[in-house]
# Entry
Amino acid sequence: MNLLSEAFVTRIGRALLAVLALILAAFGPAHAQSTHIQPKLVAESAAPAPGSATTLALTMTPDKTWHGYWVNGGDAGFGLSVEWNAPEGVTIAPFRYPVPDALILFGMMNHVYEHPYALLAEVQIDKSIAPGTDLTLSGVANWLACTDKVCVPEKAVISVALKAGDGTVSEASRARFDGWRALLPQPLDRHGAWERRGDMVRFAVPLPASTTVDTPHLFVETQDVVDYAAPQQFSRNGDQIIVETRAKGEKAGPVSALLKLGGGRGLSLKLEPGTVPAAGEAIAGPADGIDGTLFWTALGGAILGGLILNLMPCVFPILSLKALSLARSGGDARTAKVEALAYTAGAVITALLLGGALLALRAAGEQVGWAFQLQHPVSVLALLILALAITLNLLGYYELPSFGGGQALAEKGGAAGGFWTGALAAFVATPCSGPLLGAALGATLVLPAWAALPIFGGLGLGLALPFLAIGFVPALRRRLPKPGPWMDRFRKWMALPMGLTTLALAWLLWRQLGSGEQLLWPSLAVAMALVLLTHYGSIQRGDRRSWLLIASGLLLVVSLAGTVTEVVEAERSFDGAGSTFSPDALVKARSTGKPVFVYFTADWCLSCKANEAGAIDREAVQKAFDKAGVVTLVGDWTNGDPVITRTLAEHGRNSVPLYLWYAPGATKPEILPQILTPGLLTGKADG
# Structure
């Protein structure tokens, strides 16, 4: 009797809850209309047969500019949940989601639907239910609705009237549900594999080579596996798709994911821990929408940073002499405009080429960052010889039309000289761009390639703006000093910063090459360039004794070669303050409970060296660090390091310098300014 009473009470309770839900639904249109995503629950068959199943669809219709979320919303969202009130004998499976889109907002990845979409769920009817039984379903749905500026948690009562019957499905209903089913990801019949390698996570998805893959993206449903906003590299190795991206968290075990193939198609799959094959032929990733605010801010920052770069010692002489070449020519407006446009084209194209090479190397799986060309001794050697040639030209040892000398250039020659001078200015400016363009160039890590390239072009445009202004604003040209003997003296003075740049590049080459034997041939190349350029100048002056200079120069090179090993080894033995950075070293340092200071530097980074000499290595700073027990870790990026490159990317940077301060017990580091002062560091140490 008690059991019968409990069953009766249970049925009465369910009936009352159903009536309450229907009342709320009946009086809820005003509430539902106030939501930014309108839900509606429909069934494929209003009369499901006992012992069979039917499909429910929860349609979601976002207002304009609003979006809903996939089951795993990404960095900043969450999917939908429903608290069901179902009759006894009715079982509702979890909702299945259609293939979502990836949307980056403010550097965060969102897995969203910006258009009407439908979630599908199977409803199983127990065979014991009698025909004609009321099976009305109701529940309270909760979801998150967002724009690019605001998010609002929303809820509504959803319900659909069902009655046990013969399972009839109308043609119109079947067609509508077939359309929704076509948008669901198809389950993959085999498991894939995944593995974590350091800071990277790699996936292998079994997929026949005959399957078309267009702009793929891997949506990982399982939490704490990947950094959602990190770039994904796709490649094909036989019948497997290899996906590589940045890891996040310490998740182990099976992983659920969805591979978007393009055109609204997708595959749902399980991935088990295992060995992932090597990457194969690269596959292009998706051209996702971009964060407009991030793009325009980064572009403006790149133009401003490029403008300031003109004051750097390796760029200012080039700009100054090109401006003075206009003064020599009498300020002809047409010549000025042609040279200014050519100079701008050279600077912009070179910046685009360097940026394009950076993006291409990243897409190929290389861990590289801005100014990557200076991490290779061959590039440094080429730049060293070029800087030496410019210095000798400025000192008057020989003449080249591109850098003045007083020659009357033809129109074509002027354009060519302007173009290559702009290209040179952009190339030599890259080592100085870190502190001025850290945030702007860091944005290229999260923007698609087509949106990242204009930011690199903005750097070249900013670099060319002063010369562009001189070329197109007559008032500025009229303010240029009149030609006179002072111009030759000024030209020689400009050799001083270029000569210092040459010495800095020579020192960098010493730092990059680990032994005297490795440095011997670059030294010979530089010496030969010096001798040949001097010989060329001698020919211009009509001096026939230049061959004697060449022979003397070669003898000098051979006599100095034996001392190279000792000098280099002495230079390489120097160690800066602090231990070498590595992820393990950082974990160990933070486990001590002491403050941790991490800085990333490179020998070719002028601002890095200025910060080290003017702040980090100062005696007062080191005493304050010792007193507070600060653990210092140094990441040397001179020759490139994939671990450091990934660490820079994790903090929104793709070049040095980067300074991180970990306070005791803090979960995240504080990113310090890129221009350091002793007071800033001692203040951090003193707490």
